[in-house]
Amino acid sequence: MNSHSVLNRTLLAVAGLVLLGGGLLVLTGALDLYRRWNLEPPADWPLTSPHDTIVPAQDRTRWTDEGWWWPTVIAALAILMALALWWLLAQLRNRHPGRLPVGNPPCDGVELHDSALADALAADTARLPGVHTAHANLTGQADHPHATVDLTLEADARPRDVLHALESTLHRARQSTGWEHLPTRAMLRVSPHRPHRAE
What we know:
This protein has 6 helices and 5 strands, in the order ααααββαββαβ. By secondary structure, the protein is α+β, with helices and mostly antiparallel strands. The protein folds into 2 domains: 59 residues, no CATH class; 92 residues, Alpha-Beta Plaits (2-Layer Sandwich). Helix 5 packs antiparallel against helix 6.
C-alpha cells in the first residue's frame, strides 16, 4: 500500500468516526433517549434533550459584534473549502501514465499503453523461478514512469535470487521500450503454505 492510499484511508476513517460520533450525539439528544432510558449524561454534556443546541446562543453571539469575527469565519470556511477541493481533485487526477513513448529518442507515432507494459512485465515476472504470482502497475508521468511489482513467492523461494532474476526482467523491459531508466519498487510476500513437520 503506498503512502497516498494510506493517507486517503486515514482521512476517510477520521472523517467517518467524527461524523458517526456527532450523528449519534445529535440523535441521542433529539430523541430524548437519556430521559427515556434513565441514563445520566456526563456533566456539561451537549445535546441532552431535544431543546438543546450544540453551541448555546450566548456562545454563538459572543463575538458577532466584533469587526474581526465575520472576516475570520469567512476566511476559515474558504480555507476549508479550498482544502476539500484540492483533496477531491487529487483523487480524480489520473495517476497512470497512459500512453508511453517508445524509443530513445522517442519514435514519432509509436506509443505503448501502460497497461500493456504492466501486463507483459507481470507475465514475464511470473515465470521466474520461485515466483507464485506477480502483478505489475505503472504510475507517474508518461516521460518518467515508475513500476511497482507485487510478487508472491513460493514457500521455499530465496528472495535474493528472485530479486536478481527480476533485474534481468526489468532489463528486458527497458530494452524493448528503448528506455534508459525504469525505477521499480518490488513488494515481496510469501504464499500461504502448510507448516512442515521436522522428523
